[in-house]
Amino acid sequence: MSLIFTDxxxxxxxxxxxxxxxxxxxxxxxEVIGGDRSYDPEVWAGLAGTLGLAGLTIPEEYGGAGATHxxxxxxxRELGAGLVPSPLLAxxxxxxxxxxxxxxxxxxxxxPRLAEGHxxxxxxxxxxxxxxxxxxxxxxxxxxxxxxFALSGTKVAVLNGAEAELLLVQAAGPEGTGVYLVERxxxxxxxxxxxxxxxxxxxxxxxxxxxxxxxxAGDAAAALDHVADLANLAIASEQSGAMGACxxxxxxxxxxxYTFGQPIGAYQGVKHKLADMYNLWxxxxxxxxxxxxxADEEPAKLGAAAxxxxxxxxxxxxxxxxxxxxxxxxxxxxxxxxxHFFYKNAIAGNVLAGDADYQLDRLADKLGI
Amino acid sequence: xTSIDEFxxxxxxxxxxxxxxxxxxxxxxxxxxxxxxxxSKRFQKALWEAGFAGITWPKEYGGQxxxxxxxxxxxxxxxxxxxxxxxxxxxxxxxxxTILELGTEEQKRRHLPPMLRGEEIxxxxxxxxxxxxxxxxxxxxxxxxxxxxxxxxxxVWTSGAQYSDFGxxxxxxxxxxxxxxxITMFIVDMHHPGVTVRPLVVATGHAPFxxxxxDNVEVPADAVIGEVDKGWDAAVVMLRxxxxxxxxxxxxxxxxxxxxxxxxxxxxxGLESDPAIRRRLALLYARESALxxxxxxxHEETTAGIQIGARGSAAKLAGAELALWAADLAQxxxxxxxxxxxxxxxxxxAAVVGAxxxxxxxxxxxIQRNIVGERVLGLxxxxxxxxxxxxxxxxxxx
Lengths: 369, 398
Ligand SMILES: Cc1cc2nc3c(=O)[nH]c(=O)nc-3n(C[C@H](O)[C@H](O)[C@H](O)COP(=O)(O)OP(=O)(O)OC[C@H]3O[C@@H](n4cnc5c(N)ncnc54)[C@H](O)[C@@H]3O)c2cc1C
Ligand SMILES: Cc1cc2nc3c(=O)[nH]c(=O)nc-3n(C[C@H](O)[C@H](O)[C@H](O)COP(=O)(O)OP(=O)(O)OC[C@H]3O[C@@H](n4cnc5c(N)ncnc54)[C@H](O)[C@@H]3O)c2cc1C
Known about the structure:
Chain B: InterPro entries: Acyl-CoA_Oxase/DH_mid-dom, Acyl-CoA_Oxase/DH_mid-dom_sf, AcylCo_DH-like_C, AcylCo_DH/oxidase_C, AcylCoA_DH/ox_N, AcylCoA_DH/ox_N_sf, AcylCoA_DH/oxidase_NM_dom_sf, Mycobact_Acyl-CoA_DH. The complex is a heterodimer. Chain A is α+β, with helices and mostly antiparallel strands. Helix content of chain A is about 55%, strand content about 15%. Chain A contains eleven helices and nine strands. In chain A, the strands form two sheets. In chain A, strands 1, 2, 3, 4, 5, 6 and 7 form a seven-stranded mixed sheet that branches. Chain A starts with 6 loop residues before the first helix and ends with a helix. Chain B is α+β, with helices and mostly antiparallel strands. Chain B folds into three domains: about 5-85, no CATH class; about 120-235, Butyryl-CoA Dehydrogenase, subunit A, domain 2; about 250-375, Butyryl-CoA Dehydrogenase, subunit A, domain 3 (Up-down Bundle), CATH 1.20.140. In chain B, strands 3-6-7-10 form a four-stranded mixed sheet. In chain B, strands 4-5-9-8 form a four-stranded antiparallel sheet, with no helix packed on it. Chain B is globular, with a radius of gyration of 22 Å. Residues about 25-30 of chain B have low confidence and may be disordered. One flavin-adenine dinucleotide (FAD) binds near residues 127, 158, 362 and 363 of chain B.
C-alpha cells in the first residue's frame, strides 16, 4: 500500500470536514466548552452514528466497519483541525483494548454498542505520581469479591472519565496485572472532572473504592502495549490536522495583515517561520502515514513507527501553535481569537498518553537501543 | 510474489553479487572520491545492463520504464551497499530529468542513453562569483554567431567539472531586459579548448568542485535547452529536480551522520544507555524516517500525476537541517574523540565538517525557506527592487 491517500480516504476526510464546518465550527466549539459537558451529545451522535466513526476500525463481526487505521486517521485529522470536543478518542482506545484482549464474551456484548456509539467507553491507566502513561505495576488493586472483583485505587487523566459508561481499568489482581471492566452506574466510584488547560478535551480523576468489576480475559500487558500504539496513531492524527489548521490560519493572516506597507508574509521574519511550520507539518504527517501503513500491513513495524510519528507531531504541534499566537501579534493573544485554543490543545496533547520523553523512550525500546 | 517483490529480490541479488556491502570500519571520505573514475564508469555500465539505471526513465531513451515503487525498492536495497556512482549523481538527478522534460527529441536520443550507461558525465554550471542564491544575476554571456552562440564568463562551485564531458550552463542572452527574462540554458562541451577548469579545495580538504572559465566557447544553435531567453524556466525545472534528488535521501547506512552510524558510535563508547543520548538517537531515527516517508510521498505523488511543485525544497531544507542537527549529536556522542581525531572517525569528522556545505549546495536554507513560503504557501515575494529593472541597470556584488 502507498503513502498517498486513497479516493475513499479523501472522500471520508471531505465528509468529516463538511460535518465539522456545518455542525461544529469553532464558534460553536466555544459555546460547548463554556458549558458543563465536555462535548455536545448531538455532535457526538452525528460523528458516531451518521458518519460511523465510532465503529470505523471495529471488526465487522462485532458490528463495526472493519476499516483501516489509515481511514480512521484521515477522519481524525479533520476533527483535530476543528478542535472538535468528542469522546471518539476515548472510545477508539476502549474498543482497541477490547479487540486486543480478545475476550469473546465481552466483545460480543460491548463492541457492537461501542460501534454504534450508543455507549461511551474509556481506558483508565495512569496513576497519580507516576509519569508513565501506563504504569508497569499499577497501585490500583483488584481483589476477588462475590463472583467478580472489587477495585480500589485512583486513576488520573481518564479521557471523558465523567461521561464514560464503560471503564477499562488497569489494576493489579490476584493473577498479576489485568484489565477490569467497570460499568456505570456503580457503587464506590467517584469522578472528579479535571479543570485542565485544554477545554476541548475532557479528562477526569476516577477513584475506586471497592467498585465492582469484571476481569476481561486476555494478555493485559500485550493489549495495553498495542493500545499505546493506537493512542499514538490517533493523537498524532489529531495533532497533524491541528498543525495543518494552524498553518492555514497563520498563512492566511500573513497575506492580509499589512505592516510597513507590505503584507507581513513578505517579511522573512514571518515567512521563514511559516516555512518551518510547513516542514514540521509535512514531515510529521509523512511519518504518520508511514505509521498507519505499518498498522495496516506491517504490524511488526508499528510500535516504532507510531512512537516516531507521535514524538514528531507532539513537538511540532506545540511549536506551530506557539508560532500561530506569535505571528498573529496582539490579536493572537486575545481570548476572542482561536489561537490560544490550539496552543492549549497542543500543551495538553504533548503529555496526553505519554509525554515527549515517554515517546522517545518507547521508540528507543522498540528499536532495541 | 508481486512484481515489486520480484524486482526487489532481483536488485538485492544483483547488489550482493556486484556491489561492496557497506563496511563501517573501512575508511571513507563520504564523498565517493576515493574510487577511481574508471571503476565508477564500469559499475554504472553494469548497473544499466542489469536494468537498475534510469529505473523511471522511458525505455526509448535507455531507461527501464518503471515506476516510483521500483525506484524506492531499489534505493532501499542499495542503502546497505557502497555504490561508486557519485560522478553520475548530478547528471542523472538534474540535467537528465531537465532534458527529459524540456529537451528536443534529438537531445534526448543523443544525451540520455550515454548518461545512463556511465559513458558521459555531466555538471551543472549555474553559480558564479556574484550570483549564487541570486542565480538570475549571472553575468556569463552567450552571444549569437552565424552558426550558434559563443560563451564567455566564469562559473564557480561547479561540482564534478574536473571529470565532466558536458555541462548545463546558464548564460545571459539579453542584458537589456529584467534579469529573469534574458537567460538561456545551453548544453556545453566541457572538452572545448576554451573551457578551463580549476579545482577548489573545500572545508573537508577535498576538491569536489571547481571554478570554470569560458573563453570564446562556441556552442551550436541546437544546444539550447528549452527556449532562447527562457532559461530561467529551465533552471526552475532543474532546481526542482535537484532538490528532490538531494532531499529524498533518507536512511542509508552509508550516511555517517545517520542513525545507524551514530548508534554504532554511541555503542562503541558505552553511551547508548545514557538516557539523554538514547532519546536523541530515537529522535534522530524519527526525523530520518519522516524524511524518508516524505520523499516517498513526493515520489508516489509524481507517479500518480500529482504536481509536487516546489515541495522538493521542503525536503531539501529538511535534509540539510537534519544533517546540521545530527552533526551536533555526533559531537556530543564523540566528545574529544571527534575533536582530537581517531582513525575510525574519519568519515564522521568529514560529515560533521561537511554538513554546512549541504545546507548551501543546491540553494541555501534561507533560499529554500523563501521558496517554501512563496511557492508552496503562496506568501508574497520578498520586497525586491530588481524584478522589473533591466539587468544592465542592476546593482551586483563585486
Ligand atoms: C499583553 C499585551 C499588552 C499590551 N499592552 C499595550 C499597551 O499598554 N499599549 C499599547 O499601545 N499597546 C500594547 N500592546 C500592543 C502591542 O504593542 C502590539 O500587539 C505589538 O506591537 C504587535 O502589533 P500588532 O498586534 O498590530 O501585530 P502586527 O504588527 O500585525 O504583527 C503581526 C506579526 O507580524 C510580525 N511582523 C510585523 N511586521 C514585521 C516585519 N517588518 N518584519 C518581521 N515581522 C513582522 C510581528 O512580529 C508579529 O509576529 C500590548 C500587547 C499585548 C500582547
Ligand atoms: C558543496 C557545494 C557544491 C555546489 N555545487 C554546485 C554545482 O555543482 N553547480 C552550481 O552551479 N553551484 C554549485 N554550488 C553553489 C551553490 O548553489 C551556491 O553556493 C549557493 O546557491 C549559495 O550561493 P553563494 O555561495 O553565492 O552565497 P550567497 O548567495 O552570497 O549567500 C550568502 C548568504 O546570504 C544568504 N542570502 C542570500 N540571499 C538571501 C535572501 N534573499 N534572503 C535571505 N538570505 C539570503 C544565503 O542564505 C547565505 O547564507 C555548490 C555549493 C556547495 C557548497
